[in-house]
Structure formats: C-alpha cells, structure tokens
Amino acid sequence: MNHFALHHWPLRLASLLACLLFWQLAASLRLDFGLFTFTYVPTPGAVLEAAWQLLQSSKLLPHLGSSLGRVFAGYLAAALVGVLLGLAIGRSKWAEDSLLPPLEVLRPIPAVAWIPLAILMFPSSELSMIFITFTGALFPVLLNTIHGVEGVDRRLVASARSLGAGRLAILREVVLPGAAPSIVTGLAIGMGTSWFCLVTAEMISGQFGIGYYTWESYTLQNYPDIVVGMLLIGLLGMGSSGLVRHLGGLVTPWYRVKGKA
Fold this sequence. Notes:
By secondary structure, the chain is an all-alpha fold. It contains ten helices and no strands. α3 (60-91) runs antiparallel to α4. The mean pLDDT is 87.
C-alpha cells in the first residue's frame, strides 16, 4: 500500500490541526486537569518563534550533525550485527541455545542503565553514546530477524534442498526473501529506538546534539526551546524510519500489507 496516497492526506492534516488547536487553547488558557497542567507549556506560536531563532542561529547544524552521525553509526552497526545474529539464531538450534539466553538477559535493560558502564568501557563519550544507540537498535532488528527466519515455510526449504540447493543457496534464495519483510520491520523499529536511546545518552554525556540541546533548554528554563528539541527528535525519527521503510519496500516488491481499505 502507498502510505503517501493523496486521498489519505485530508484526514491526516485534519488530525494534526486538531492537535495544534487543542495545544493552542490549553496553553493559552493555562488549563489545569489535575493530573497534568498546561500552566507552563508554551503556545505553538512561542515554539514557532523559538524554532525560527534556532534556524537563524549557528547552533542548529552542529547539533544536527552530531546527532545524525551518532545515530547512523550505531544504527548501521546494530543492523549488521542484528541481521547476522538473527539469521544464525533462526537457522541454527545450537546458535539459539548458546547466543539467545545472554541476549535475552540484556534486552530488557533500558538505555539509561547502560550509560555508566558505557562511560567506563569506552575511552570517549562519543563512542559511549554510539554504543548506547547501538544497543537500542540491536534488539528490534535481532528479534524481528529471528521471527522472520523462523516463519519461513519449512516446505519451501525442503523443496529447495530436494532440488539440490546447498545451505548458502537456501539462505540466499529462500530464507532471506521470506524473512525480508520482518527484517525491514525490525530495521524501521530499530531506527526509532536508536533515536530514543541517543537522546537519553546526549542528555547526560553529550556536548552537542538534539538531546543535549533539549536538556540544556530545560536547565536554562527556555521552555519553547524544549518543545523545539522534542519536535526535532520526532521529525528526525519519523523521517529516518520512513526512509528505512521506503528502502525496504524497494527491495521487497513482492510484499504488500493487506487488510486496509
């Protein structure tokens, strides 16, 4: 399905406008709902002005460059390791028994818990932030790859083997095409989690980056800049995940999502 079909955009734009309208009213009227309050939340106009000032300043490019470099370094390493490990674990019972248990122990550990150890393990804060991004992206890629490999129809593998295909040929011609949609899903999810983990690391260890900019704005009580940083993170995460899905769609033209009108 084409996610950019024109007939979907009116509803999507209306949804965004409704959210902006609620935000404007709640922030302007300083609504207090008891459990949460909009008393100190800046209005969309204040955020737009802060965003314009950031665009005109010399700070935006260093922050963007730092965050993008860290994300893609950690993400690409995680994509390579996650896919290779996933293929091995999905195809080999020995690999599953020896590799999956320690990985499952590490998987629930949140990114913020890795920060002290990463600082001790790596000689620079830059490498430690890339490592934290790597850990965030690794497990979605790994688990989706395992799921995709294990979901390949065994009859297809048996048929290829009966026709004389070797292990590499079965992997290349049967397993990878069958698991590719699940791998692409894992890669897209991993991109989003890598942004989440990077921002956590930058808030503590960074000197440049969107996460550092957001945290610095909070410490300086520049509330509109906080929202600007949050929106930048959301847009960058959405855009990069969309790019991964688009590229994945190009390499899996046989796969189409069904069930939506």
